[in-house]
Amino acid sequence: MPGMVTPTNDRHAELTRSGLNLIQQAISIFDADLRLAVCNRPYQAMFGLPDELTRTGATFQDTIRYLVHRGEYGPQDDPEAAIRERVDQARTFQPHYMERKRADGRWISVEGAPLSQGGWIAVYTDITHIKRQEALLRARSEELSELVLENAERLSAANRALAATNAALEEAKRILTESEARTRHVTAMVPAHIAHMDRDYRYTFSNNQISMVFPGANRSIIGCQCETVLGDETFARIRPHLDRAIAGQPQVFEITHPPSGRRIRIALTPDQNGRGVYILSTDVTAEVQAREALTHAAKRAVAAQMTSGLAHDFGNLLTIILGLQGRLARAGLPPEQAEDVQATLAAARRGVRLLDGISALTGRREHQPQPVGLRAMLDDLAAMTRPTLGAGVTLDTRIGDLPARVMLDPGVLQDVLLNLILNARDAMRGRGRIGVTVRPAGRWLEIAVADTGPGFSDEALARATEPFFTTKGSQGTGLGLSMVYDQIKLAGGTLRLGNAEGGGAQVTIRLPLRAARPQLVLLVEDDDAIRAHIREMLTAQGHSVIEAGSLAEARGLTDLAGLTMILSDLQLGDGSGADLRGRGLPLVLMTALPPGDPRRSGLDCPVLTKPFGDTELAVAMAETDD
Length: 626
What we know:
44% helix; disordered N terminus; elongated; five-stranded antiparallel sheet; 18 helices
């Protein structure tokens, strides 16, 4: 149908066609490629266009050429130049309103506005009658001031232009609002903190994801100072980078967030308008850990290759040496020869420890947490290490306000602290002070080992946890800190090396802080001997116990005031201990059935396999306390 062409011929297109044709003004829409997308019948009628110029896809250039040659724009000295000029203007289309007199003497107003999808819409209105009324008013109103008439004419034209401008502004506002909403929606979905900060370190924009990257930070930060939001210590670390970025130098760097121990990568992009800096912060803790794990895995692979070929033969040789020297030690040798034998035995035992260290490095040790009294453990550690420190080294241990017992692997923690204390002793060369401080840090247990030695070198800070890296020359194996690192990571913690402000090295360890709280346990077991044994295990761990010898007896006790959990055998003489679920109390079951037995399947609570020890019991009870 000439006069209106649409991209499709479906029902909605027909409705649109009919609606546009009822509009008195001429309408045309050209796309970003300067091809006709939509027009109505008044558009064809107003300009006398042939049908081919009102069909979808007709070019703007052909339409202009037709109008120029018909004299729509008056006489042209160079018609092709006039065509090129209008096409060039269309390529850089700007919103506008204008009124012009056509070659046939009629007046039209032209209102154009760009579209967000590209291209533009133009609306043409015949205003001949308005112009004639203005002329008639001028001709018949000699009494009116010439100035008043001119002002009235200008005001009328200005009103029409203002209405067109307002329409363009409303469309621009709508487009801008939609674009801003989309931008905010997208940035809010990004698992990173995106922000803008002005030159005074004040946030002017945030996607409200800062707490995802910096735990504990307030989500509402717009208008707040960076130092207030992130804390003094974190701000001090990033301020030099902020200053360089504000000065125009892009920055990408990583920091460790002190409160949480997370590794954060921060990218700073200068604001081109000189108003501050754009910030992208992401949590790369998992990436860094994976990178370090790959590095360590490569070193472990080397160690595994070494030990796979040598460990067997080396172990046999050490066994022979220890056996022969042990026989000599029992042979009643003179003091001088006996001393040599003891020295040889000490060297052989040192070889065994080295072999064990390499094996531990290449293998994976199971983490076995259990309730630990930290004060008693630190006292035992001090008693064990002081004889090896020498008279010139003092050891000071301090403990903050912590639960009486926490869930830790005591063997791992003792090995770690012993390693760090002996490293500090070696660094101080027999004179100085070693401090071990244990304190709570939010959800973490923080343990810091500091000394008054020379501190870590830059190389040591970068490589100290690598297997086989040592600063002790031939006196060191390079396995100590690597093993410490692996053990801490296995326990779900973090390790940070640094130098204290007053000098000396400081190693800070953070482990998950889980209190081993005393419980009032309902123990359900129908075997008297087993019940007595488990009762002793529970009371040794600081728990109180109420006993039941059957399922029926247990059901009558589950509503006792103060009861905190139930520990029950799965197979009781009068039923299943699993029936005690749903009583509003945490439940731990125990059974002699093997783990693969179908009677153990589908149980949504910890299940202990008999026989079990103190550690297994403590871990199962801790799981119900999480």
